[in-house]
Amino acid sequence: MISCILKTQSRFFCAFLLSLVVSFGALAQEGASEQADVATKGVDPGATAGAEASTGDPAVISAGESLFKNNCAVCHSAGSDVIVGPGLQGVTERRSEAWLLKWVKNSQALIQSGDADAVAIYNEFNKQAMPSFAFSDDEIKSILAYISSGQGVTSAPAAGPEGVTAGESVGTEAVGAASAIGGYLDIVLVVLIIVLIVLVVTLLLITSLLKNYLNKNRTLNEYDTEVVNQRFDFSKVYKSKAVRALVLLIFVVVLVDLSIDKVMGIGIQQGYQPKQPIAFSHKLHAGDHQIDCNYCHSTVYKSRSASIPSANICMNCHSQIKTESAEIQKIYKAIERNEPIQWVRIHNLPDLAYFNHSQHTKVGGIECQTCHGPIQEMEVVYQYSPLTMGWCIDCHRETPLNTEGNEYYDKLVELHDASSKGAFTVASNGGTECSKCHY
Ligand code: HEC
Ligand code: HEC
Ligand code: HEC
Ligand code: HEC
Ligand code: HEC
Ligand code: HEC
Question: Which sequence ranges are marked TM in the entry (predicted)?
Answer without folding.
Answer: 187-210, 242-260
